[in-house]
Fold:
Amino acid sequence: MCDPEAGSSTPKRVRKEPGNEKKSWRKQPFVDSWLEEPQFKGWLSKASDNYKAKCLCCKKELVAGKSELERHGDTPTHKTNALQIKNVPKISDLFRRTSGTEETKTKFAELKIVYDVIEHDRSFNSMEHIVQLNQVALPDSTIARSIKLHRTKITSLVNNVVGRAVQQKNAEVLKGNFFSILVDESTDIGNNKNLCILAKSIGANGITMNTFLLDYVKIKDASAENLFQVFKHCMSKYGLLFENIVGYCSDNANVMAGENNSFVTRLLKENDGIIVFGCICHSLNLVASAASECLPKNVESLLHLIFSYFSRSPKRQGILEELQDFMRACQVRMINPSKTRWLALGNCIARVLSQWPVLFSLFAEAKSEDKNTVADIIFADLNNPYTKAYLQFLNFVLPTFNSFNKLFQSDKVLIHCFANEAERFLRLLASNFLKPELILGDSLFTCNAKHPSNILPLIDIKIGAAAEETISDLKTRFDHDVSKDVEYFRLRCLQFHQVAFQETQKRVPLQQGCIRALNFLQPSNALGVDKSIQRANIELSPLIKKFESKIDPIATKDEWDHMSNYFSSEEKTAFLNLPILEFWREIEVCENFNAELQFKNIGKLARICLSLPHSNASVERIFSMVSDIKTKKRNKLFASTVASLVRVKLDMQNMKKACYEYPVTEKMLELFNENMYKKDHKETEIAGLLAAEDEEDETVI
Structure:
């Protein structure tokens, strides 16, 4: 028989005794909302076990009960640990800051590369390969791996980051300062008309003269009205006031400087307290060009023919070099004579004269062997003894023009010596043909250069020692009488002198009251050290009247009268050793025993006058800079991009910094964001004056 209990699966029920039951207890899981409660925030964290909690301060696990956690938070040990780590940042925050620093370093590196692109006129397209090359060459560099520079990004950085930061900085400098403007228009390699507007002003330190590019725009029409409206908009865009303009300079074209309906007439309607200068370098070139009309045409054409004969033929150039070696002459090439700048012929003339025996022998042989028409013409001119005499005469007179021209092409502050140097130039011209009594005194500026009573005898007209020797040789070289030919030659040279003198009288503003009054800027005149000049003869009234809205006229005159007696001999000696900008800065900030500025008005007048331009050479340098930027392979750059490139290059020059030294400013880093890719739209008020731009690219295929 089987056991009845063996196959049963139902357990036996056991009766529990009263009083012996165990109390039931439920585990509390972690509640995520606790993390946001004030008493737990900052130190409570969820553990891997859902029924546990973790204290970040004490680094221990706790039972996930709210009351237990509250009791732990009140313990002295927990409070001490919490106080110790209160100021320790979170790991996530540390990583976030590191990431931000790396981003800033990358921006810094990208901007430095862009500086190199700007300074050295590098192609935007080529920089993509340069960046990739750096990444291959520097595989361990995190920054090199992070740099990304394509054409679009570089263009945006140039225009909307670096260029804009410099533009805003320039505007702030000019807003609180007096400045002069220099304006010119030109045609670039793409046959586009462009207007360039510069501003010259003394720097904030008072001892440097800075040049700023206000605008460089592509224009439709170069009429005076259109040019002025574009300029007016430029002033408005910068927030500049017309009343702060003290000087104006441009070339002598009618559209710019004409007496009626020109750019300058419109400018003077806005502010009549502006001193207007025609470019002295441009005027000097016109003087020389007008005087050259008195000489035979073949003299200049000979220079062009000689250069053309050799320029495109390596064979002919080789023959010239062999002949130079044989005749033991200096081995040099012929210089290309300028077709637009007559004064540039000086070096070309000197080169031809130095190679005269070589050239004569070469073209004598070429005439008989080559049967070349050009060679025949050149030899005929070389064989004419008067051709050499005319070139020697020009080689005597042109250095006077070129030295004066070169002086005022400088970027140095020269306005204080403008009148003296211009008068010196006129005296040198007059000394070649006028009687000595007319050269000294004010009669120099008013005398009639063609009146026979004012002119030296024809034999005494200065033509240069070399030309005199050539003319003397003619008398012994030929059997027939050459006196009439020599007289005709001297008469031509006299006409050159006369026209040069008259054109200088007309074009160089020697007698304008404001120009002559600028002599007060000379430190020796201001301090009364130069005894050869009477300070009483330096009349400041024209300048004071011109700028009377900017200074106190009476106080200015009084300060000028006291200035020469205020300083001791030792102080004057120290002052005279200073550059002119530093000299007047020291005068302007000079205080008396009451700590009051002693010469603030005359100092302010000097600062205004030192801001005046002496020539338009700075604009010509900008056009040369544009020619280096906008080449045949980069002929579709927008005018706005060219403007930004030039603006930054000028700022580098003003700061005397190379690309690796030029600073990355906070403003640049602020502008370096996603908004830099937004394109500026052409302002509606001048949209009709500016020419439309094609799609920007660096190359045209």
In short: Residues 32-84 form one domain.
